[in-house]
Amino acid sequence: MQVQINRTVLELVEGDITELEADAIVNAANERLAHGGGVAGVIARMGGPVIQRESDEWVRRHGPVPTGSAAITSGGRLRARYVIHAVGPVYDGTPRSARLLASAVHAALRLADERGLRSIALPAISTGIFGYPMEEAAEVMLRAAIAYLQRETGLELVIFCLYGRPALTIFITALTRLTEGRTEEPT
């Protein structure tokens, strides 16, 4: 499914984020950028040890990445040139979780813009071991992306790459609800 937000295409796809052709992919990271499990582990394995080395160096220089913000490294052996490590919240059911998740999405998109990138792919941040319910995460993440894309941006394509048909269906439902009245194209 695709929807146009100003000059940017926002697209939902099911698949493996490490296989996408995008300038950057987003990693659902922890504050120490220790890429052991989940999507972070897959990205680090597929991209090679350079991603963890650069992440360790980033943390050494700047300290842990605060929840709701992001850091950037090269993409190593990935198709993407960069990995943007967005730190989402551990879900606690409060409005604070939503604010921090939206902030992580904004931070990732802003880093892509600051680097002059044209395309970026994001996973469902915080929905794995951080426990964020998929339905709530979809609403928060898509609302944050749409708000960002309504401003001036150089991004031409923002992809939400979901792992599995159930996650994709949840994001399609949320995007449909948030963009009623816009021209949408099914994929």
Largest sheet: 8 strands, mixed
Q: How much helicity do the residues have?
A: 25-40%
Uncertain regions: pLDDT < 50 for 5+ in a row?
183-187
The CATH architecture name reads: 3-Layer(aba) Sandwich
Q: How large, in whole angstroms, is the Cα Rg?
A: 15 Å
Q: How would you sum up the global shape?
A: globular
Write down the secondary-structure element order: EEEHHEEHEHEHE
* End-to-end gap: 5 Å
Under CATH, the topology can be stated as Leucine Aminopeptidase, subunit E, domain 1
Give the total of beta strands: 8
Concise structural overview:
This protein has 187 residues and is α/β, with parallel strands linked by helices. It has five helices and eight strands, in the order E-E-E-H-H-E-E-H-E-H-E-H-E. The protein has an eight-stranded mixed sheet, sandwiched between helices.
What does this 3D model show about the protein?
There is one protein chain. The chain has 187 residues and is an alpha/beta fold. The chain has one domain: Leucine Aminopeptidase, subunit E, domain 1 (3-Layer(aba) Sandwich), CATH 3.40.220.10. The protein contains five helices and eight strands. The protein has helices at 38-47, 49-62, 95-114, 134-149, 165-178, and strands spanning 2-5, 8-14, 24-29, 70-74, 82-87, 119-122, 157-162, 184-185. Strands 4-5-3-6-7-2-1-8 form an eight-stranded mixed β-sheet, with helices on both faces. Strand 6, helix 4 (134-149) and strand 7 (157-162) form a beta-alpha-beta unit. Helix 4 packs across helix 5 (165-178). The radius of gyration is 15 Å and the shape is globular. The chain starts with a strand and ends with a strand. The relative contact order is 0.23.
